[in-house]
What we know:
Order of helices and strands: HHEHEHEHEHEHEHHHHH
Largest sheet: 6 strands, parallel
Helix content: 40-55%
Amino acid sequence: MLYAVFFASRFPLPGGGARMETCAVQGARSCLRVLVADDHAMVGEGVVRLLRDRFDEVQLVLSGEQLLQAARAGGIDIIVTDISMEDMTGIDAMRMLRAEGITTPFVFLSMHHSCAIVSEALRAGAGGYVLKSAAGDELLHAIDEVLAGRVYLASGLAAMALTSSGRGERYTLTDKQRRILDWVAQGLRSKQIAYELGVSVRTVESHKYAIMQLMGVHGTLELVRRAHQLGLIKAFRDDLQQLA
């Protein structure tokens, strides 16, 4: 609870408040509508089964775009979403909705425990952050906290976020990975990068995949955007579409 009180003051939580009060009392949760977003159907269906023990209306979507459509349609009281999805991250989807004035609370359910990602989610307006490895009762508790207008983080994640500046230096990239990331941002292909480094194309692709896994992204375009946001690359090209 101490972490929740701290983060509620440092990272103001959109949504919640009066709109939730009519359904916030114990025994009245069924009048709330929960949206679950995860591009892995089996994982998403498992979350839905868990939440249906508490909430009557739980909707599953399988992409960031579907998340946006459902949220824009209205009637959603809280969104539980993965961060890594093929078309966009859950954080980017939340930013887009916030820019449109949609303040539905978000709880992120992710396998990523990087302090930079946790801090980014908080600064973007996340209400809660739960690891998939610890989901279950903790997810239900996180939802309760967020619906009550507080921010929920597991104690380990809270400690990480407190010590993180949210900048890219919190990512532990090797010198070679940083060079590869810079070249990728400049538009070089894996074959060109391999030539510059004197290594195989497979080695370059392996490093690139490791960086994408660390940042929770799927494609080159998304990788460059995320690295730019976190200050990890020296330059950011205007013609990013060439990387898609």
